[in-house]
């Protein structure tokens, strides 16, 4: 099979999986192949039109505004010059009308800062035939009077009816799950965003030409590497991973460092190096594969990490896919005669400008009623693999557990304490290593504050876990996930957890704590250090006030309770007849 059909197939496979940066790269690669063939045959195939239209849809999903505008211009140019029949032209026109409505919906959801970038764009949108997008932008900027003056809004329409119309347009499903910040490829810096296996991956970078292309290569390579992760049974335990690109005149080749405690990576990029530079492609590709592999190892759980990575490294298809991502700048050069697009390439052509008015309308995104097939709804909190989806956007991660820090801290048990009637009781998580324990609670306090108001830390005590030892109990710590959250999002969620069985000789301490808790309806969660001495060392200055605590008997746990994770595989199998949820603790 030739490269072009592979690229076309990958484009649609990546897009259906929600891996939009990888889809963008392979789509541009396929388009470039068509242009190369056209240079040889002196004939551009009509099949270029659906590919460019696909790129336009990918661009609007990514909120990549310069890409979207370029794709629309190319679609219109191809439609006007290629031998399309009337029905094909009609289909293209219909698709462009749909595209216009989607782009208009997104523009109505631009922030004030994003709107400030596009004050010169109305002329451009009108020139591209995107009339609804142009009207929506003028309205969002606060110039309803101009739309009335020119007749785009009939004079008989009331301000209330106009506001309702634009609110409904802004609230369309296409704008309900925005991929990331709007991309302009200018200003000082920007952020590219992806979601792989439910992990939000953000790439921050300066907006030099080399680093824009480098950032696209980084995020596309991560997507390409993670593309088959669902089939490999990988489960993510991290909500976010951040990559920062730094321009460096001190490195000869791109390199990176990863901090698994912080879930961050720093990529140092040689000044001015374009990723697709032919003589440097091998070293660039090697670095990108290494970066993607280490991110995978840091953020995901698989039964055998070494075997999984060896399989991915040995898969030539993965290497070929990443090579298509690396050369996206060269591919774009073939199609558009330039390696990247910037918003300023468009706005400099405008002859008028609309100011961003202080009195602009406040457009509130409204949740519209939608029909939902109850049988197709994703299961809340489902943890088993393989997952019932191939779309990475259908996966979510909820994790209050910093897996690597917990491994370092060495959680060894739980203790109860009380400072008198003026204070709620305390639940102390006992760790072996103080530095890591302090970091765990410092992160919680940074995220939640001193009070866990939404009870994001789900803490459960499971009693009756041993017939032979009635006083034994199990403590489970994971993330709170409501049924409403899972049902309305339609996602399958992965949640990291930690649990500890307490081999208490009697239930006196636990019962005393529960009695005080029932009276105060609150407790303090705090770290303690215990290295086998007589008493643990409590660290109350890092305490977090909590109110919700789940206390259940093991016999009362149902298959759908969060506490089912704490039963253990054997007990789960005995009671429910299956292998049970995959426990990623």
Global shape: globular
Please report the distance between the alpha carbons of the first and last residues.
Answer: 44 Å
Mean pLDDT: 89
Helix content: 40-55%
- Low-confidence sequence ranges: 370-386
Query: What's the helix count?
Result: 21
* Number of separate strands: 18
- SS class: alpha/beta
Strand content: 15-25%
Largest sheet entry: 5 strands, mixed
Rg is: 28 Å
By oligomeric state, this entry counts as: single chain
> How are the strands of the largest sheet arranged?
1-2-4-6-5
Summarize the model shown.
The protein is α/β, with parallel strands linked by helices and 585 residues long. 43% of the residues lie in helices and 17% in strands. The protein has 21 helices and 18 strands.
Keywords, separated by commas or semicolons:
single chain, 585 residues, alpha/beta, 5-stranded mixed sheet, 21 helices
Can you put this structure into words, describing what you see?
The structure is a single chain. The chain has helices spanning 3-16, 20-41, 48-62, 65-81, 86-107, 112-117, 122-127, 131-140, 144-150, 159-170, 209-226, 281-299, 305-313, 316-326, 328-336, 344-347, 403-409, 434-448, 483-489, 508-520, 569-576, and strands at residues 189-196, 199-206, 235-236, 240-248, 255-259, 264-270, 300-301, 395-398, 411-417, 426-431, 457-463, 473-479, 492-495, 498-502, 523-529, 537-538, 544-546, 550-553. It is of the alpha/beta class and 585 residues long. The strands form five sheets. Strands 1-2-4-6-5 form a five-stranded mixed beta sheet, with helices on one face. Strands 9, 10, 15, 16 and 17 form a five-stranded mixed beta sheet that branches. Strands 14-12-11-18 form a four-stranded mixed beta sheet, with no helix packed on it. It is globular. The model is unreliable at 370-386 (pLDDT under 50).
